Amino acid sequence: MSRQTAIVEPPGLTTNRAPFIDEAQQKGEIYIRQPYELYSDENHEAWRRLFARMEPRWDRYANPHFLKGIHSLCLDPLQVPKLEDVNKFLKPLTGFQARPVSGYIPSFLFFDCLRNRTFPTTITIRPSNKLDYLPEPDIFHDVAGHVPMHTDKAFAETLVRFGECAHTAAEMIAGIRDEAEQVRRLTSIIKAMARFFWFTVEFGLMRANNGLRVYGSGLLSSCGEIEHAIDSPEVQRYPIQIEWAINQGFEIDHYQPLLFIVDSFAHLFSLADQLERWMREGKLNNVAPGEPEVNERDLKSFLHRAL
Q: Which domains does the chain have, with CATH numbers?
């Protein structure tokens, strides 16, 4: 009698259950390759479903720079993109490239990547039964949410400028002799930078000819929240004030109740400039307590750079 050979689905690159990623993290590898052959049918199906339901929402709520960018990248709506293909379209426009990583990357390294026009990009994708929300970033959030904005020259320059702020912070911290004071000030500065990034790059709104539009990637990759951000009466929307943004805590596990508005990417660039000036003037040394928490790896990434 012949036996039927069982068809075994490859383990895939599903968030939180990808052996390839587990092995890379155990080895301490941050920068990795994208093993495209490991994506399973479920992974491609998750991408297809995410892309299909976001397209009409992008047309309705996304800013025109994003819409132009996602067209420029020629993303395939039916399967997970190859980052090398994404970069072929992206790099000639702004010099930026998506660089695959194994997951979390310490703060200084992340900002230093931006300074060098690389974007740390997660290669796993959320499970098909958790399309609505996952606390960890995935390739849909990074490539469909972030990367189209990197095709815009003004926005790209803002990211580079923001990355330069991290080097300024490391240089300033290096001049402090008292270790406890180093850690105290650095914790406050990292918290301020994380909040600024959250309320602009991740969850920012921008004025447009046809009203408010989304440019923040956390919104651009969320089927429910992109609509909620623009239409819901429960959301408070204010012109951005840097002193408010850097002192405002946030939580990641629900729709954001408070969002800030910029006038343009030139305005956003000026805010990144202001953030660095305030850093040099000591105005980021004592921001309000609260989220996000700053972990030891983030602190060490700056302190080791400062040595």
A: 26-306 (1.10.800.10)
